[in-house]
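dumping this here before i forget
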Amino acid sequence: FLLADTSGDGKLTVEELIAASATEEVKAWLAANDLDVTEVPGVFALLDSGNDGSLSFDEFVTGVARLRGGAKQLDIASLMYESKRIMSGITALGRSLDNLEIRLARPWRQNP
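structure:
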């Protein structure tokens, strides 16, 4: 984490993680933790539990521990992330439809 945090602010950005994941030291660490990281931005999104575009040390450690176990765990986490994203979209669509239904239920006003 400290190696990747080049800004020294105690948080990782996706850019910092991408740059760090290109180094042999970080590649070896990821491999030792059973993480095959071929799509860093996607993994970053899975680790970013606060959805704020940065990873705290706790988010990073907790997320890596959750994703350990190779592609199977990573695939499950990816599916869970996509499910949350889709549910948010469906919820927003439902609200839009409710608003449309209310507007359509109002009597039409005629211009005098």
